[in-house]
Amino acid sequence: MNLSIQIGKLMGIPIKLHVTFLLILPVFGYIFANNPPGFGFRDIGPLWFRYALGLSVALLLFTCVLLHELGHSYVAKKHGSNIQEITLFLFGGVSSLEDIPRNPKIEFKMALAGPAVSLLIGSILIIFYGILKVNIPMSNPYLRLMEVIGYINVVLCVFNLLPAFPMDGGRVLRAALADRMSYMKATHIAAYVGKMFAILMGIFGFITVPDGVWFMLIAFFIYIGASEEEKSTQVSITLEGMKMKDIMSEDVKTVPSTMTVEELVDFMFKHKHMGYPVVDGAEIKGIVTFTDVQNIPKEKRKTINVSNIMTKEIISTKEDDEAVKALKIMTTNNIGRIIITQDKKIIGIVSRTDLLRSVQLLE
Fold first, then answer.
1. What are the C-alpha distances in Å from 12 to residues 74, 113, 328?
2. What is the domain range of residue 308?
3. Is 90 within 8 Å of 64 (Cβ atoms)?
4. Annotated binding residue at 72?
5. Number of other residues whose CB lies within 10 A of the CB of residue 37
6. Are 297 and 342 in the same domain?
7. Is 68 annotated as a binding residue?
8. Which of residues 171, 205, 239 is at a domain's end?
9. pTM for this predicted structure
10. Is 230 in the active site?
11. How far is Cα 105 from Cα 112, in angstroms, rounded to an integer?
């Protein structure tokens, strides 16, 4: 299920809003509207205006988060990395890179670019606030709006520079370590520091409940993020040098587009695979998986053919492509297998299981 909505493009990069962002936006608006002066507008009236200011702060905050991510993306694109999308989530934004550069100097620049943008925005707003407050009453809601956004950006910069991998500070730490040791060892250390930081933050959040609930949630996401990033890096490094032909299965089971869904279920049960290329004659028509079957009620499976449920967009690679490429394609497109073709004919197939088995053997 796709939980993100694309709202446009900047620098050629698709900008998406995750459903969690849409859920948290009114919550943030409520919090800012009811916080006391300093980081809120509780003393402002009428009520509708107070909530309008709170929602404005929430929207401007996530706009600044987007600019923060665009800072990372600009440096990444400048050094040849492809940015697939930027998604705004519950706790901020994420830039999806096709591949994180192994060059420590480039990663160092990329990691610092985002906090630098936040610091620049915050500094400019705070300076303007300092100039304007001389002649404008401190109670002016728009002046306070400028102050709040300014200080939040400075906090965003400082928070992101904490050495909690995979946050920006953690990536800076990995880049610094990778200059002195292997990239994998640097990742292990940075991930360990990130996990320890997350545990300490979680303990602090638990002690200070209910105010500390946010710390506990952030700690959870940092810990999971550090674990996933470490695992992903290990798999990528382990598969380096491996070709698709080294790990693909050449005995490819295919099904015709005219097969009924009920027959497909029996075929899956017999051959124990969860996905199959759909081939008519020598022509590849698509690919069908168990997920496609699950969407069809049992009573209708006799009358519906594979052609009605298969995915027609075929993602394939060549046998001499790097095995790491298959991992990136599967992760990016959220698929479980990829077809290997030569002269428009199927010569093999690679599944996530094949990749994981190869990693286990190589390790």
1. 11, 18, 20
2. 244-362
3. no
4. yes
5. 14
6. yes
7. yes
8. 239
9. 0.75
10. no
11. 11
Instruction: Please check if 320 is assigned to a binding site.
Output: no
User: Do 174 and 274 fall within a single domain?
Assistant: no
Show the CA angle centred on residue 304, arms to residues 301 and 306, nearest 5°: 100
Q: Are 106 and 179 in contact (CB under 8 A)?
A: no
How many Cβ atoms from other residues are within 10 Å of residue 326's Cβ? 25
Best CA proximity match to 170, nearest among 225, 103, 231: 225
Q: Is residue 93 located within the same domain as residue 215?
A: yes
Taking the C-alpha atoms of residue 325 and residue 328, their distance in angstroms, rounded to an integer, is: 5
Are the beta carbons of 352 and 275 closer than 8 angstroms?
no
Report the sign of the C-alpha dihedral through residues 275, 271, 326, 360, in that order: positive
* Predicted confidence pLDDT, tens digits, the chain (363 residues): 567 788 888 888 888 887 877 778 888 888 888 888 777 788 887 888 888 988 898 889 888 888 998 998 899 888 887 787 888 776 666 666 666 677 889 889 999 999 999 999 999 999 998 888 888 876 788 888 888 899 989 988 998 898 888 889 999 999 999 888 988 899 999 999 999 999 999 999 899 877 788 788 888 888 888 888 888 888 888 888 888 888 888 888 889 999 999 999 999 988 888 888 898 887 888 888 888 888 888 888 888 999 899 888 888 888 888 888 787 778 777 788 888 888 778 888 888 888 888 888 876
* Dist. CA 43–CA 247, nearest whole Å: 65
> Of 69, 107, 229, 230, which residue is the catalytic one?
69
199 and 285 part of one domain = no
Q: Do 198 and 51 fall into the same domain?
A: yes
Kindly state whether residues 153 and 174 are assigned to the same domain. yes
